[in-house]
Amino acid sequence: MTEPYLEIDGIRREFGPVVAVEAVRLTIQRGEFMTFLGPSGSGKSTTLYILAGLDVPTAGDIRLEGRSLLSTPPQHRQIGMVFQRYTLFPHLTVAENVAFPLVVRRRPRAEIDAKVKAMLRLVRLEGFEDRKPAQMSGGQQQRVALARALVYDPPVLLMDEPLSALDKKLREEIQFEIRRIHQETGVTILYVTHDQEEALRLSDRIAVFSKGVIDQVGTGEELYAHPTTRFVAGFIGDSDFLTATVTAAEKGRADLKLGDDVIVRGVPIHGDPGRPGAKASLMLRPERIDVATAPSSAVDGDRAALPATVEDITFLGASIHLAARTAWGEAVAVRLPYGHPAAAGLARGQSIGLGFEPAAAHCFL
Amino acid sequence: MAGVTRQAAAIGGGTGLAPGRPRRLPAGPFALVVPGLLLLVVFFALPVLALLLRSVTEPEPGFANYAALIGSGTYLKIFFNTFLVSAVVTLVSLAIGFPVAWTLAILPQGVAAPIFGVLILSMWTNLLTRTYAWMVLLQRTGVINKSLIGLGLIDAPLPMVNNLTGVTIGMTYIMLPFVVLPLYGVIRRIDPAILQAAALCGASRFQALRLVLLPLVAPGMAAGALMVFVMSLGYFVTPALLGGTANMMLAELIAQFVQSLVNWGMGGAAALVLLVVTLALYALQLRLFGTAGLGGR
Ligand SMILES: Nc1ncnc2c1ncn2[C@@H]1O[C@H](COP(=O)(O)OP(=O)(O)OP(=O)(O)O)[C@@H](O)[C@H]1O
Ligand SMILES: [Mg+2]
């Protein structure tokens, strides 16, 4: 771990009775690509606006290399930002837009021209210098906005859902560009999105926002493999949740009872179950469930198995999607890779066993 | 603004208007314009043309009327007064109107609406009433002079009626809504995020004002300024009541030629000068800003 670069220290933001950000705490390393991922209204933009200086926290502090930023107005923070909406200056050309941060800093003309040229090359918009924003597509406008935000070499770049107005193909293309620019410039990026795929594709680490707090921070893989809250488990990747009762728990592992008589032992548990009998949910990843054609609830070695019936089978190319229902009536989605031997003989209404490894499952209270 | 236009275009193009749909409006609606146009031609264009004709035919054919108008110091002074007052009224209206429009644009609707109500109501109040009200306020024994003397700020009452100061004050008041409304329109159309972007680009407040805000509101300013200047050039009531006979403006001169002196030739010549100046200013505005800010797109 290197020393903290950008620190968000317990910020809170209230809008009258609404608490938009409750207590956000986060440390970002220099050069890191950090993504804020979370549902609508979870406080991502508010946190970003506070970092930019466009909003002021009710409580808490933000520090860049140890110095508080709160008393610095936005024009002096040296933080670049790309907004969700197109915010190019409509009366200026592309080149003038990109030059703007340098013009207000009174840089010499030759330097401005050289940097604008280099930035437009970086975002692959050479030849568009004299266009007005209204003559550009949304994706091109956002690339100009990116160039404008980066032209004066800000150490930190904020992006608030910059691609959400674009179609999928264009979005992926610009995601790739952003990734490349991040690597080439080494700028520290804070990126907001509610698209988990985008977050996974771009980020070094992801902070998952939920109702004004960060539920969990980690690499995409960490969040996927080791979610610490039910919310994170449900938000990153696909997941099945089953109702369970905790029968015993110690050292972070729990024994669970599902339905009337199925016992699953040794599931990692998050939170304190208190005394046995607590209600909990068991989380499984659809692609980590195995299908046995004989119904069984027997524990086979390290694996657990749930008796179920096939309700529907959907062929999705690379995978086969199975809608199953447990013997006690809960829906479970299963994804089998194409060509999996178990998929071959399945039919609707058939009784099956859903096998999984308890150690790879999660139990949330 | 441009963004909006572009979006509209994108929506129009994207949803793909039905292939057979004509691009131009059908001829039908044009017929609806004909009665209005006819009315304008018969009751406005023709009389104006007749008046202008009389300016070169009465009392005898030629440009004698114009020569008289330009050759006389008295008349030139009236032209000078008219342009001076109109220019000052325009500048002061802009200077007061801009902060007013800005404040109205950023206030919550609930607060801005009543202020607008007052603004519009003042426009609907009888012009004579409002001008007489200013007379009461501005005269030697009026509220303003009495207060200033009472506060000990001045010894003798300031002369504010029967001179151009009074005219300028009274007209600025009347013209204010005509700059506030178009300015409010353009300011409301500016996305606040654009100004935030300017700040994040490192622009100081003043730089953001000069490099972003002013260029974006320029069409509204030009529209308001044109409206006020042109209306001021031809204004009659306020100069007549607050200016006194010694400080005549062009409209009063025209009225005097036509009504008191029954000199249609001179009246027509003065009117033509006014018309030409007005049209020239309008052409300039169109050239610089197109129809943007005049309510068109
Ligand atoms: N100016 C404001 N006044 C009142 N409430 C606000 C204001 N700005 C944000 N909020 C509220 O604060 C909460 C968090 O808003 P925020 O914009 O940060 O969410 P977000 O995570 O960015 O969501 P989205 O993904 O929809 O952009 C929301 O409930 C929102 O309604
Ligand atoms: Mg947001």
Automatic annotation (TrEMBL), chain A:
Listed GO MF terms: ATP binding; ATP hydrolysis activity; transmembrane transporter activity
Keyword Cell division annotated: no
Annotated ranges, domain ABC transporter: 6-236
Gene3D superfamilies on file: 2.40.50.100, P-loop containing nucleotide triphosphate hydrolases
Domain of life: Bacteria
InterPro entries associated with the record: AAA+_ATPase, ABC_SmlMolc_Importer, ABC_transporter-like_ATP-bd, ABC_transporter-like_CS, Mo/tungstate-bd_C_term_dom, P-loop_NTPase, Transp-assoc_OB_typ2
UniProt entry keywords in alphabetical sequence: ATP-binding, Nucleotide-binding, Transport
Keyword DNA damage: no
Protein name: Branched-chain amino acid ABC transporter substrate-binding protein
Organism: Prosthecodimorpha hirschii
Lineage: Bacteria, Pseudomonadati, Pseudomonadota, Alphaproteobacteria, Hyphomicrobiales
